[in-house]
Design a protein that fits this description.
alpha/beta; three-stranded parallel beta sheet; 6 helices
């Protein structure tokens, strides 16, 4: 997937904004991205905070929730976990982008696998795509939503993947389609 991310981030091929919306934590994500040499490819990381701020043990990683137990709840009706509603976080990010750039993204490609991605996927438009990992919670939720037929809230295109190399291939296909248009 690293090569696919580098391809999408190459200004010579595409005008792309990459950001991460994850229920992991900032330390974990930054460690992986820095190890892979791709941290600079991502404009924003929306996730749970983590740092080495334990007063009695500065070597202990302290994990916190994005929406803490003392914070007002996000009141998601789709079923997001208490610490984060990915749908609300995606909407906030897109609203902030629209306000600061006075433009909307032409297309969003959202990569997801867990049930907690479903709320964000429901907010995608008809021109957007979700790359849904097979045999995980998100695939099950999408199947249930599609079974509703005409009352389905799903608007985006759904494409499936199992291995990271498949995502990389899809990125190549989207890069070719975009450069031709």
């Amino acid at each position: 997937m690293k090569r696919g991310i580098q391809l999408l981030n190459d200004p010579a091929s595409l005008d792309t904004t990459l950001f991460i919306l994850s229920n992991a934590n900032v330390f974990f994500i930054n460690t992986i991205l820095q190890h892979q040499g791709i941290r600079g490819c991502f404009d924003t990381i929306i996730t749970n905070p983590a740092d080495f701020s334990a007063p009695n043990n500065p070597n202990r990683l302290v994990l916190r929730r994005r929406v803490g137990p003392q914070d007002p709840p996000h009141n998601c009706q789709v079923g997001c976990e208490e610490n984060m509603c990915k749908g609300q976080e995606l909407t906030r990010y897109l609203d902030a982008h629209r306000q600061s750039n006075d433009t909307e993204f032409d297309r969003i490609i959202y990569i997801g696998d867990g049930s907690n991605d479903f709320c964000a996927v429901l907010r995608l438009r008809s021109q957007d795509v979700v790359l849904c990992r097979r045999f995980r919670g998100l695939e099950h939720k999408i199947a249930n939503e599609r079974a509703k037929g005409s009352t389905s809230r799903l608007q985006c295109t759904v494409e499936y993947w199992s291995g990271a190399w498949e995502v990389e291939e899809k990125f190549k296909q989207y890069a070719k389609r975009t450069s031709v248009n």
